[in-house]
Design a protein that fits this description.
This protein is mainly α and 124 residues long. The chain has one domain. Helix content is 84%, strand content 0%. The protein has 5 helices and no strands. Helix 3 packs antiparallel against helix 4. The longest helix has 26 residues.
């Protein structure tokens, strides 16, 4: 099950990183009213991406901390889907492109699978 978690974590990482690329296109910092524009947005992503990749290494090594990173990533994916769905329902036009929707729905599905596998491993 740990090997499956590695591949699911990797898949979710790719989806979330693509979502963040899409977020730069849609100027997400304006959606969330974050200061710093593109510069601040990119600076925040240096440590965030480091943590995503570090978590992948820990999952690969089957370290206990990797399971916490896995839960964090899956909850991050669930949050991304939920908050953007909320904004879309409120009439925002961002993230309504078919590829944006594909990424968000894919993130939801993979995040649920990842959380389930992670919780299963933690309970074993």
């Amino acid at each position: 099950m740990a090997e499956i978690l590695f591949w699911v974590y990797l898949t979710n990482s790719v989806l979330l990183i693509n979502h963040e690329i899409d977020s730069a296109y849609w100027q997400e910092w304006e959606l969330f009213k974050l200061p710093g524009g593109i510069t601040g947005f990119l600076i925040v992503h240096f440590p965030a991406l480091f943590l995503v990749f570090y978590g992948l290494v820990l999952v690969f090594q089957r370290a206990a901390a990797g399971l916490m990173f896995s839960l964090g990533l899956s909850f991050g994916g669930l949050f991304a889907f939920t908050i953007h769905t909320y904004f879309i329902q409120r009439g925002r036009h961002e993230f309504k492109a078919p590829i944006s929707q594909f990424i968000l729905i894919g993130t939801l599905i993979v995040s649920l699978i990842q959380a389930g596998i992670t919780i299963y491993i933690l309970a074993a």
